[in-house]
Structure formats: C-alpha cells, structure tokens
Amino acid sequence: MSTPVSLSLLLPTLGASLPPWPFQPPPKPAIFQNTRPSTPTPTASGGAPDDFSHTNSEDSVLISKDSSMVSQLNELEQRSRHLNTTCFKDVLLNATYKGTERGRFFHSKVYNIGYCKVPKVGSTFWTLLFTTLDNGVDFGKKLLEKKRSSLHAGRYSFSSSFTYLKSAKVPIILPTRDPYSRLYSAFIDKSYLPIRINTNYDVLSIRNKSLCATDVSFQEFLQWILNEAKAGKSLDRHWAPIYSICGSCEVNAQYIAKQETFSNDIGVLLKKLNVSSEKYNFIMHTLEGKRIQSSLPGIVATILERSSGAEISRCMPWLEVTRRIWRSFQIQVKLY
Ligand SMILES: *[C@@H]1O[C@H](CO)[C@@H](O)[C@H](O)[C@H]1NC(C)=O
Ligand SMILES: *[C@@H]1O[C@H](CO)[C@@H](O)[C@H](O)[C@H]1NC(C)=O
Ligand SMILES: *[C@@H]1O[C@H](CO)[C@@H](O)[C@H](O)[C@H]1NC(C)=O
Ligand SMILES: *[C@@H]1O[C@H](CO)[C@@H](O)[C@H](O)[C@H]1NC(C)=O
C-alpha cells in the first residue's frame, strides 16, 4: 500500500512551492529529450512501497519486541553511517559548489532533537511535529486550524540555528529527497508555473524585459543551475544541494528522513524518541489524513494571483496559466 504524504501539510504558503509528491523518476532520457516546456511528462505514478504498518493500540509505541522496528532502526543507523563516510570522500570534499547559506533549524528542547528545514520537504508538517513534541497535541490541533500563511510566518519556541545545534552536538534529523525529483519539482514550481518570472529571464539570459521568458526547458533550467554553481554563486534554497543548506557533514546527523518513505521514517523516528501514544497517533494521523480537496482551491487562487501581474499576463494568456496549473497538479500530485 502506498501512503502519499498528506497534501495539505506539505502545501505552500502563498504558492511558495507545490507539495512534494510520491515520485518515481521517469526514465531520464525521456525527460532530457523533452525540450518543449509546454508538455512536461506527467510522472505522478506510484509512490514508494510502504510496507510499514502500525496499529493504534498503546503497545504500538513500544519498540522492544517488534522485529520490523529493529530492522528499521538499523536502516536509520545505516543511512547516518553512509552520510558520515560520504562526507570524507573526495567527491564531496572537492565539490565545486561552495555556497553555504544555511537553512533554518528547529530544536525540540523536550526531546533534544533538531531538524534542518529544507524547502519542499514537508516543512509545514515539521512545524506541526515540533509544536506537538514540545507543546503537546492541543497546540498541534490549534496549529492545524490556523491559516497556512500565518503558520509559516510564526516564530516558534523551537526555532534554532545551525551554529547552536552544531556546537551543542544536538542529534539532527536531516530531510532528503531524490535529487532528480527535487530538481524536477522545483522546475515545475518555479519555472513552468509563471510565478517567478525573473528566474526564467535569468535562465534564458534575456535582459530585455519586453521579451517573454515563459518557455524554459528542464534541460535549460539544469544547465543554468550548473553554470551558477560553477560561477561561485549561492544557489536558491529550492535547488541548492541539501548538504550545503544543512551542513550535513558538520552537524550530528543521526536521522535521515527520506521523502520517498516519509511517513514510514517518521513513525520509526517517533518511536525511537519514545513519544507518548497520544502524540504518536496525532502526528501519524495528520500525516495520513486526506485533506486534498480543501487545499487545492487555495493553491490555485494563489498561483493565479501571483501570475496576474502585467508582465505575465502580457506573455501568457490566462487560459495557458490555468492549463499549466492543471498540468503541474498532474505532475506533482497523485490525483485519483
Ligand atoms: C563519522 O566518521 C568519523 C571518522 O570516520 C568517526 O570518528 C565518527 O565517530 C563518525 N560519526 C558517526 C556519527 O558515526
Ligand atoms: C580531489 O582533490 C584532490 C586534491 O586536489 C585530488 O588529489 C583528487 O584526485 C580529487 N578527487 C576527485 C574525485 O576529483
Ligand atoms: C527589446 O525588445 C523589443 C521587442 O523585440 C524591441 O522593440 C526593443 O528595441 C528591445 N529593446 C532593447 C533595449 O533591446
Ligand atoms: C518511554 O516513556 C515512558 C513514559 O512515557 C517511560 O515509562 C519509559 O521508560 C520510556 N522508555 C524509554 C526507553 O525511555
């Protein structure tokens, strides 16, 4: 059974980004040959298999007798070791990209665990998770009722910094996602959808703003990112390597949560943290909740609003904007 991450929790503040989706990279040649941006290949097929299941009974939070739990904990350790060894390999040490603009970090004081915030990797969900961890389920529920925009703007008692978490050697949760799917998703959100038209002018090196920059191919987008990195520029956090945002090789990276096995990984992590079954059930329930319908209109409205400026409506008819929105949903979201 595949368990898509609850859409509503991953959805953007005012079109900042579309939700991650259970992604299987399409055969790459097909994408690279597809240089027409107007028809990106829909790839919203099956998600990663999720054979982890839990019951809602009290005992489910105990890890001791559960052998699948043990193997999942081993898997987590294995990921952390893999990261650690990779950190000392040439390929990273010699990496061309030296940008070090750190992301924001969370720190649960109650459980002494940190998290590195990466755009597009379920950040709304993590805010909810940390609220629930430190302030309890009731606060989590209140947060769910708030508007998404206020949710992102809020300052939280668990806000922290790279510098602090590093020096205190706090165990950190690092999010990861298949880099190809992360880049493709960023492309759909920031280039294909006309909400950040300035990026497209940069990608196509168009200086003359009376020309239109609405048709960028994925290949052009990738090439532009590579050129920016080679030129020593700091990349946007939506496509900068996660290790540069999180300082993955400098922090105490104990838990690596993969986008592809998200709810599974969160379940294991919560058990490992020994959270109460009340918190566990609330968080897991929220993660699996289906509230797609209630959030889609908000996203559509946001994208339409963002693309209603003269510089976009001049270049792209309204009908084409709506077509691209629909297309992006087909790509990003599993629509039933
Ligand atoms: C990472 O590797 C270094 C050197 O190989 C080792 O000293 C350190 O204990 C390792 N850290 C973790 C968290 O495994
Ligand atoms: C990394 O850099 C070192 C020293 O400059 C060099 O000896 C090594 O071959 C490089 N490794 C790779 C994979 O480029
Ligand atoms: C910009 O493009 C428009 C339309 O092609 C053209 O008329 C104008 O001369 C160009 N401006 C510059 C500064 O090149
Ligand atoms: C987990 O938490 C419970 C109380 O919530 C406590 O009794 C138990 O000792 C804890 N287990 C571990 C391994 O910390």
From TrEMBL:
EC identifiers of the protein: 2.8.2.-
Main location: Golgi
Subcellular location: Golgi apparatus membrane
Gene Ontology biological process terms, A to Z: carbohydrate biosynthetic process
Topology in membrane: Single-pass type II membrane protein
Region (Disordered): 25-57
Signal peptide per UniProt: 1-17
InterPro entries per the UniProt record, alphabetical: Carb_sulfotrans_8-10, Sulfotransferase
One MF annotation (Gene Ontology) recorded for this entry: sulfotransferase activity
Pfam families linked to this entry: Sulfotransfer_2
Keywords: Carbohydrate metabolism, Glycoprotein, Golgi apparatus, Membrane, Signal, Signal-anchor, Transferase, Transmembrane, Transmembrane helix
UniProt enzyme class: transferase
Biased composition (Polar residues): 32-44
GO cellular component: Golgi membrane
Similarity-based family: Belongs to the sulfotransferase 2 family.
Full protein name: Carbohydrate sulfotransferase
